[in-house]
Amino acid sequence: MSSPKPLQLAANNFTANDSVLVSSLPASIENLTKLRTISIPHHLLLGEIQAAIRRLSSLQVLELQGNNFSGAIPRQLRTDPFEAEVNQIVGSIPPKIGSLKKFKRLELSKNRLSGSLLDQLGEIKELKRILLEENNLT
């Protein structure tokens, strides 16, 4: 049996009628339960991240920067890194992130996040990079 491959669609130029494709992740992506990496930066994808990754229990890397995803940060977030800067993500940073003791990268700049920064972020010993500028965090 072959090992699962990452879904990497960076540096493509998907087009529809000579314009950039504006779409959402297909609902069928949740059937790829052994998928470990999703890397789809800069494609103007829409929709909620939570709905797209709900059943992806093996997902380890989630790179969605430069799209137009909306909704909240997924409650079941367990990927490292989680890169979703320059989207339309709203709400607060889930407290569960503070319990991910080996979490290394959280990049959520230029979204619509609000609320307080979690005290627990300071407890993540291996955190190397956190980008949260241009949000409404306090």
UniProtKB/TrEMBL annotation:
Pfam families, per database record: LRR_1 (PF00560)
Name of the protein: Chaoptin
Organism whose genome encodes this protein: Escallonia rubra
